[in-house]
Every structure is written in structure tokens, then in C-alpha cells.
Amino acid sequence: MKKNNENELLEHKFKPIYDSNSKILILGSFPSVKSRQQNFYYGHEKNRFWKLLAYLFNMDVPTSIDEKINFLLKNNIAIWDVVKRCKICGSSDLSITDVTLNDILSILDKTNIKEVYFNGKTAYNLFLKYQNKDILNKYNDIKFVNLPSTSPANASYSFEKLVDCWEEIKNNS
Length: 173
Description:
The chain has a single domain (about 10-170), classed as Uracil-DNA glycosylase-like domain (Uracil-DNA Glycosylase, subunit E, 3-Layer(aba) Sandwich), CATH 3.40.470.10. The strands form two sheets. Strands 3-2-6-7 form a four-stranded parallel beta sheet. The chain is α/β, with parallel strands linked by helices and about 170 residues long. The chain contains eight helices and seven strands. Helices cover about 35% and strands about 20% of the residues.
């Protein structure tokens, strides 16, 4: 896969993962280059997302896409990204411009999600900046929480520090 030109508008190609039993939603910003190559969430081998969730739920780290989907659904976790379409340079969240949001309401309307967790500051800030105010008004009982990114670019957070911050999701799933 060629590295995208920062002027190229990219579209999110994979679907959200959820079912009617989903209780929490984890939102990232936009798939990295590695994730876009693999056509699935958190595809970079150094991203700590899958290792972190496996640790929190005392399970083996899922490796295949099917294992990851089963892991999420078994633990009542939905995942998606805030951004549907944008311009981005490589995998740099800080370079995201020309944002179109995914329809987060489409998941919230079909589930009983009570907590939405953002995987990193960029996802949280993009959601707050561009989201439809109807989400916050219609779902004012939902808790929205920003968590530190599991990305390898977030080197200031050790795995142990991420565990401390993310452990609340296991109690709510």
C-alpha cells in the first residue's frame, strides 16, 4: 500500500464492531497506515490495544480478525473510530484535517451503551469539536471518558500506566 499524500482524502473502510449486548464503546480517531493495510482496528504490531484489553480481561491476546471480533463481543465491547473521512499524513493524528464523522448515533441507537471511551486525546477532541450536539443531548445518561492512547507514539505511558488508566472499562463491560 502506498503512503498517502496528505492532500488525499481517505475514507474509513471497515465497519464498527458491536452487537445488541454491547455495553461500552471504544472510539479511536482514524485507522493508522498499518490498520488500513490489515483492514482492521489497531493493526500496528506495537500498538498496545489488544495486549491491554487481553490483560484487563485475563484472556489470551487475540491475533486474527475473527479472534479480535469474538473477544470484543464476548466482553460486550463495541469499537469504531470517530472519523469517517479525512486528510491525514501517514498515521499522524495531529495531521488530521477535513473531517467527516462516522455516524456514532447509529450504534448508540441499536445498543445499550452507557459508557463511551476514547482511545486518546485526538479522538476525544475530534468528537467534541465535530460531533452532532444531538448525541450529547439525546444520550445525556452516557458517560464520555478520555483515556490515554494505546498508540506506540504515546511513549510517555508505560504499559502499567495504561493498565491503571484503562482498568475501569472491565468493570463496565
